[in-house]
Amino acid sequence: MITVVVADDEPMVCAHLRTILGSSGDIEVVAQAQDGAEAVEAVVRHRPAVVLMDLRMPGVDGLAAIERIAALPEPPAMVALTTFDADTYVIRALRAGASGFLVKSTPPEDLIGLVRVAADGHTVLSPSAARRLVTLSSDTRERSDDARRRTACLTERERDVLSGLGEGLSNADIANKLHLAEATVKSYVSRMLVKLGCTNRTQAGLLAHEAGLVG
């Protein structure tokens, strides 16, 4: 059973998400929170696999909550919930430790599958959305220069794998593209996260865009 905490200051949204996810048979919403402070408490209490976190909430907002949860031992996968897919808060959330984001208009039939993807440790972020986000995030020369410095330590093959992360590809997709075994790609990803100081695949993917490794 995939356990989920939903954090949103609109009770109707929480109820909607609970109904959709509860219909899956393998996903259970174990707690709801109306602000970031409640979300952190719920995570500590229930240790969910996934947190769906609204970014704009009164009091402690979703961004602050993501930062606090990311600092916990073995934090859950955190997916930011937004109304618009170009929300600049999303960039900060991904850098803080979120593994992806969903717009609240995501079709119910897609939501269940995306939560499963997040629970498996993968990025919940479409390539088109990633490109729009990178447009927002790459607004300074300093950040691009820093990304190039951080990725300079990678081998050519590691850079190829990192580029795949930037495209939003799964390990299996990267393996097929580079003619490698999926286990080999998984090993590359784990090693690169340590080298680059990234918390998850999403942060590494954004870094790939900022370093100019994605066409």
UniProtKB/TrEMBL annotation:
Domain (Response regulatory): residue spans on this chain: 3-119
InterPro entries documented for this protein: CheY-like_superfamily (IPR011006), NreC/VraR/RcsB-like_REC (IPR058245), Sig_transdc_resp-reg_C-effctor (IPR016032), Sig_transdc_resp-reg_receiver (IPR001789), Tscrpt_reg_LuxR_C (IPR000792), WalR-like (IPR039420)
Native source organism of the sequence: Amycolatopsis ultiminotia
Domain HTH luxR-type: 147-212
Pfam families found in the cross-reference section: GerE, Response_reg
The entry's keywords: DNA-binding, Phosphoprotein, Transcription, Transcription regulation
Protein name: Response regulator transcription factor
Residues annotated with 4-aspartylphosphate modification: 54
